[in-house]
Amino acid sequence: MEGEPPSDWLTYREAGERLGSTAEAVRYRALRGKWPRRRGNDGRARVQIPEDAPPVRTPSACPVGAPGAQDVRTPSAPRSDQALVHALESHIKTLQADCEALKEQLAVERTAFADKEAALAGDLAAERARTSEAIEAFAAIAARLDAPAAARSRPWWRRLAG
């Protein structure tokens, strides 16, 4: 960093390489330290590293068991909560059992619906037959009533003449 002009704008990856750290660690350090930031022409964020900025410590830069080493948890490595995982897995099993029960109930309802549909189809056929018989009966009555009506439709003088 000695001898570098402070006007260098670097991407987080480039700044991480220069400081011996990761891009994510440099990003958080820039946010905390209020380092100047801007967006480059390529759309990537750029940061200006101050001259007095010390190297950024990351878990990979500090070996485990070394003096001053801390157990650092980064946002990219979330801790697992076994109790939550277990609760969610048991809830998933409950939901799967409910889903199977609903599938069985649906199969029973479909069978009952198919039976009702078949019974209604039989009733519909019988009703169509009765309707056809009634139409034929009304047609016969209409034919019998048409004969006297046809006779009355002749003019009165023809009916008198015979």
What would your notes on this structure say?
The protein is mainly α and 162 residues long. The chain has two domains: 1-58, Orthogonal Bundle (Multidrug-efflux Transporter Regulator, Chain: A, Domain 2); 81-152. Helix content is 59%, strand content 5%. The chain contains four helices and three strands, in the order βααββαα. The protein has helices spanning 12-19, 23-33, 82-152, 156-161; strands at 10-11, 37-39, 45-47. Strand 2 (37-39) and strand 3 (45-47) form a beta hairpin. Helix 1 crosses helix 2 (23-33).
Keywords:
162 residues, Multidrug-efflux Transporter Regulator, Chain: A, Domain 2, elongated, mainly alpha
Q: How much helix is in the residues?
A: 55-70%
What is the string of helix and strand elements? Answer: EHHEEHH
Mean pLDDT: 81
- Give the termini separation: 134 Å
User: What is the strand arrangement across the widest sheet?
Assistant: 1-3-2
Q: What is the domain total for the residues?
A: 2
Principal-axes geometry comes out as elongated
Report the sheet-strand fraction.
under 5%
User: What is the count of DSSP helices, taking H or I runs of 4+ residues?
Assistant: 4
Give the structural class: mainly alpha
Radius of gyration: 46 Å
